[in-house]
Design brief:
Helix content is about 30%, strand content about 20%. The chain has about 240 residues and is α/β, with parallel strands linked by helices. It has a single domain, classed as HUPs (Rossmann fold), CATH 3.40.50.620. Bound molecules: zinc ion (ZN). The site of zinc ion has 5 residues, from loops.
Length: about 240
């Protein structure tokens, strides 16, 4: 049997809040109980939102809780070469296109399960005259993505109906979370993803990208969302 490799992947946008700490403890205990490795990844891709010193503060918190990680920490901010290669791989399959829509232009679209707008595919067949390329999107289809979550049970999503073509590179030039997480889970040879249920709706998008990139799919376990009074005043993480 393959060796269990779990991970914890916080975003350094501030100190580790209660919900993230629960995800850390859950992924740590699951890895240790399986005799596996527990890796760490700093999801510091969203540089405008990263807070100076937050990454170090998170590491100190994990240490204070007695949770030691295995191997080197992966920093997403240093991995743009790998993300660019993955995007090129999708582009070679004719799966990506430039989108010139502003947030306002798609504001009347329906809402997906995570509250984000369902992209209506406006730029799929080329940019309208006078429009500038902003983001890069990946084409999705009505193939139903089924997966088994070890806590939440069997789930499925029709990406075309519920999400639409989604962003891989943002208008500000940063690679999107969905692409980075898939590339990094494969790079770190993660067999099991244990994380908060706030990311449950992202999982089908990630499985879709794994399939198109020829990457193995880890098992998924989404912990019920945990929050305290301080967390509830915060906006969702992404
Ligand atoms: Zn567009």
């Amino acid at each position: 049997m393959e060796k269990y490799r779990g991970r914890f992947a916080p975003s350094p946008t501030g100190p580790l809040h209660f919900g993230s700490l629960v995800a850390a403890v859950g992924s740590y205990l699951e890895a240790k109980s399986r005799g596996g490795a527990w890796l760490l990844r700093m999801e510091d891709l969203d540089t405008p939102r990263a807070q100076p010193g937050a990454a170090d503060a998170i590491l100190r918190t994990l240490e204070a809780c007695g949770m030691a990680w295995d191997g080197d920490i992966v920093y997403q901010s240093r991995r743009s070469v790998a993300y660019r290669a993955a995007l090129a791989h999708l582009e070679a399959q004719g799966l990506v296109y430039a989108c010139g829509c502003s947030r306002r232009e798609i504001a009347d679209s329906g809402l997906g399960p995570d509250g984000a707008l369902i992209y209506p595919g406006t730029c799929r067949n080329g940019l309208a005259p006078g429009k500038q390329a902003r983001a890069i999107r990946v084409c999705v289809d009505h193939e139903r993505i089924d997966f088994e979550d070890l806590v939440q049970g069997n789930l499925n999503q029709d990406l075309a109906a519920e999400v639409g073509d989604f962003v891989l590179r943002r208008a500000d030039g940063l690679y999107a979370y969905q692409l980075a997480v898939v590339v990094d889970d494969a790079e770190q040879k993660i067999t099991d993803v244990v994380r908060g249920a706030d990311l449950l709706d992202s999982t089908p998008r990630q499985i879709y990208l794994q399939r198109r990139l020829g990457l193995p799919a880890p098992r998924y376990l989404h912990l019920p969302a945990a929050s305290n009074r301080a967390d509830r005043r915060r906006a969702p993480r992404r």
